Amino acid sequence: MQHIFNMILHEGIFAYKKANSKATLPQLIKARKLKTHQKMGAVFVTRLKEHLSTPLGVKGYIISSKETLLEDYEKLSHWTPNVFNYGTYTNNRRDYIKGHSESNLQQINTFVVDIDSKKQSYTEILTASLDHSVGAPTLILETPKGFQVYFVLDKPLFISKKNDFRGLKVAKRISENIKRSLATVLHGVDLSCNDFGFFRMPKEESIRWFSKEMTFDFGHLIEWSRRQDDNQGRGLFVVHENQSAHDVTQEAWFQELLHAKHVKGQQGQIGRDNLLFTLALGCYSAGKEEDETFNLLDEANSSLQTPLKHSEVRKIMKSAYRGRFNGAHSSYIQQLVEEWGSGKHIVIQSNSKGWHKFKKARKDRSRSHYDEWESDILTYISTHANVNQPIKWGTQKEMCEEIGISRSTFHEVVKQSTKIMMKTEGRGCKAKTGLTSVAVLLQCALLFNQAHRAIYYKAVQRMMSERENLEAIKSLNDTVKFVEYAVIPRVADLFTINSS
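Below the sequence we write its predicted structure tokens.
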């Protein structure tokens, strides 16, 4: 438990209590030196679930050291695994707490997904995370009604008030995408759960999976989340390298265009569409949420003498937020101001490089489509294969038709994937293709009995005869090693794949 708390909290709170600590003098001296280099925060805890929602607020107390947490965790029900700057009490008895709001976050240590269902086992959650989300989680806890899944960062994300909590907005989008990716294949994923609020306190008896190796780099999570957003036609608006350093929505030219009333536009003349699109780009570069931008555009459009339809306004906003443009060039803004402005002199400022159209790198666009196709094939495998028959056999034509993918794309995705394995036996019209995945074989391995061990080995040996499967086999082997360490160290010899 000490190792788990250290992994999750990093150095966000003190190691030892300020008074009555049981630590040795050398330990206290070392901890004091660390204190001078980093700000320490606090976590909130409650003794009962019912204490999270009382008429007077949350009933609990504040913990500022790992030592106290290790002493108390067994008698606690919930905690905030993400660290806050400070915490206070609302009454003299010091049993009702406040300060656990997102604006008070000091650092984000982990993303947690709450699953209010036991229709699937923890092994299915594990494999769903591997196949359809960011990867195997760090920790899975069983709760009275379901599970909570922790994806722990290897380094904390420190939250700043600068740029309107931009880092927090990025983290919330990542959290949303993790939950949505799991909701496509699992029952009971709570999409509305507070991203950085209270979650179940980890305890030995509730831990179903723990891997110290499975932590997540925040930069990689941003890239993964970008691909998820791109698949949904929206952009992770806060992480553009060429983004303007200031809020352009407060500039004079933006306000001038925002209050223009007589904008029409005709062939050869920039008009309503151009003006609204430019306003949307300004909001996009300033990091505004889509809903906020749409409300602003909708209000501006309604004030026009000849407004566009609501659907057209939303289409314009969506186009601006797809990430194909950083913004409008200053000369384009100048043209709009001269055409539809009030006539007063407006100084148009932009960054030194100007705003410009950019095209997403081909590798990034291909990767977005590749992720979708890979996910489709994995869903097909999980639907047709199971622990008793881990390989789905059929003709490639039938498989491609059922998946809705071309043969050439099918082969390219399988060839590149480290999650999918394919084996073709026979020739011509009698040829049969077998498909399986790392996740399906891992579920087979996790059953730990003689019958499924034989099925597992037979499937692995069959797939190992194809060179294209070696990366997926390696991925399977690496994941099984996590299981050896985290779940059943006494039977580790069951999971060694004999490459010979």
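DSSP finds 17 helices and 15 strands in the chain.
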